[in-house]
Task: structure prediction
Amino acid sequence: LTATLMQVKKINAKKPARSIGFVKTHKTGSSTLANIFHRLAVKTNSSVALPGCSDPVCLGWPDSFPGEEQEALWHSQRFDMILNHAVFNAAKFAAYLKPKPYFVTVIRDPEARLQSALRYFQEFSSNDDFVAWLDEGNLTGHPHWYRYVNAIAYDLGYYEAGGTADADSESVKTWIMCLDEVFNYKRDKGLVMPLEWFDQGLILLRRALGLDENDLPYIIMKEGATISGYSREAWKEPTDTQSEKLRAKASGVDSQLYKHFNATFWDAWHAAGSDAELAQLTSTSAALQDACESQDGLSCPIECSMDSVAFTSLLRLKQGK
Result:
């Protein structure tokens, strides 16, 4: 970390055009985008709202942002970036960010996200086991239910705002439209990026924040990882009947959320996207991935593979916290 700090101290590039409030959702590819933002923060000497010592990656999550420890540490400070796991609250985020913040988050097809979470956290032995728990009917009875039941909506503040898993479609739509006001790309307020169109999202972010094209190439973080480090090769995908039940009971709000923001994302891409820039980014990211997988230290700087825990330690040194 000290060696890396010495290297990045020599860089003082132009900061993004706006402060950044990144809502780091779970099992959506958000670790990859967090790495891009963390590298940008170090490169541009941007201030980052850092977690306290009790948890190196969360800002109050799964409870309210920013959490008692951070509230005591930060006082009335305002930062260039918020990058760690937190339950989103637009007013609270804005209170700790420099003026005119730009809000960003990543979403993912809810069924794929749920299967990724089940494999990663390893708290259920199979889809049969998880469906059996769903059938018990107490969707908040599990100590970590928020990892599985409308988890994207949870991170984006749905339950904190009073939402429920069995809410009617119109109630969910009302909440989504409030969220749309905050993450509205056309009004230059923010961006919701579907993981499935990650590269396109980065091109739109570059437009909005005035980023350099060299800030965007990335390697995929935590792909196929599990919390224990042991693989779940025997994990079986859900049957059609199970998938229907998972959508209805565990992902109803997330599905409605995903449908809305996938549509608004494509509206934004058709208005401001660039196929030429997309091809260039896809190519440079693939080359970086290859270099890192072959452990080419010259073409794959160490910071390209650092996770949020490592960046938090690095930024504590850099920011003197």
